[in-house]
Amino acid sequence: MDSNSLISKTATELSGELEAGNCKAVEIAQAYLEQIDRVDGKVHAFLHRDDDDFLAQAKDSDERREKGETLGPLDGIPVCLKDVISVEGQPLTAASKILQDYVSPYDATVTRKLKAAGAVIGGRLNLDEFAMGSSTENSAYGPTRNPWDLERVPGGSSGGSSAAVAAREAPLTLGSDTGGSIRQPASLCGVVGMKPTYGMVSRYGLAAFASSLDQIGPFSQTVEDTALLLETISGHDPLDSTSYPTEVPSYSEVLKQKHEPCTLGLPKEFFGEGMDDEVRTAVEKAIEFYKGKGYEIVDLSLPTTDLSIPVYYVIATAEASSNLARYDGIRYTSRSERAENAVDVYAKSRGEGFGEEVKRRCILGAYGLSSGYYDAYYLRAQKTRTLIRQDFERAFEKVDAILTPTSPTPAFKFGAKSEDPISMYLSDVYTISTNLAGLPGLSVPCGFTQSGLPIGLQLIGKAFNETTLLSIAHDFDRELQFGRQAPNLED
């Protein structure tokens, strides 16, 4: 089987080819390495590769298969990771200069689970520094480009993870989502991206940004592949105090069962001003699709939606300032060569090691937590967060899932919003409230603009009810399969 044929297949299809003996895991790995060599000079999805280790893992998978000791459907399938997820013996930079020499001494729980499933762990994927951004322009090692238009951003912060799937450099990737950092780049790159319920996937081994909001999740071409990867990485982990002890069903098997149409809610706050006309048209067509399948569509209101962005940026920056205090130039980070005393070590190491957006958020967070301002900002934001969650709880008394656009616009050009942080922050206006409420959210491609840019549809579900959310998304995705379309990077 030729390499172009292999990289065009989904993870589920590749798993079937391996099981049928039509190809080897080494052939699959080699095909993706060749594709990375061909296109990543343009896309820049990868920060680090270890090709020898990648091929060695694939060879181990082939040897297991020959002995009849296959570990499951992901055995031999490449999975690449956002560079905030630990892999023992591999670099972890979080796209920051302050971690440029750091090598992780242990595996994240999701990495360990992937290895136990036989997945072939690939390279380290680019992101906005410490996952702070919506465009992957904030990486200390250069931006990732959108494979559908190299003059445009891939979204962020998991831009490398979404672009790698879109450019067919990997069949599956993992990212992290704090305020939309999986779903928004999935929308802009035309792939499926999912943020699970907070606590569904262990955060152990994830470089923390905002601990009460961060969640690891999958990218893929199809909802079917997303289900396969999600069931592998989910489950309770005693190493993560926020991990929830809930049973993980076989999402892949659930998708094979007949799903009865249910009720979808359209929150009026998500369909107002600020939405691009072509995004609106594509989402409206998706709504008509669901109506045609027998789904009941109801209007509803999430009245505190307009408070989501200010609440998010108080809470997220406060937690970021606390989490990033560990990067002090003393223990495992880069140290300034200009430091002359202890105070210099802290100040100059951070000044040189952190980028502008990281500094901005840490300063904002420290201010919000400072004496005299804690009650006015952080405490009030947490109380308002409760109101946002209660809005969703009331909505889910009436509907089974909520349908919205994922992003208000298609991918924008580089530099279009980088000088205006508020404009950049508004890129996540439809995704942030899901993180604040701890709910699962999924972006599935629902069309393209006239100029060929992808558009994403967001579905939001009840906490720990990923099964229903995936089934609803799969009803749309298996028929229209916009995520199977690939950009042309040969020119």
Structural key phrases:
single chain, 491 residues, alpha/beta, Amidase signature (AS) enzymes, 2 domains, eleven-stranded mixed β-sheet, 17 helices, 12% strand
Question: Explain this structure to me?
Answer:
This protein has 491 residues and is an alpha/beta fold. The protein has two domains: 3-263 and 461-484, Amidase signature (AS) enzymes (Alpha-Beta Complex); 306-381, no CATH class. It contains 17 helices and eleven strands. The chain has an eleven-stranded mixed sheet with strand order 1-3-2-4-6-5-10-11-9-7-8, with helices on both faces. Strand 7, helix 10 and strand 8 form a beta-alpha-beta unit. Helix 6 packs parallel to helix 7 (183-189). The longest helix is centred in the last third of the chain and has 21 residues, at 375-395. The protein is globular, with a radius of gyration of 21 Å.
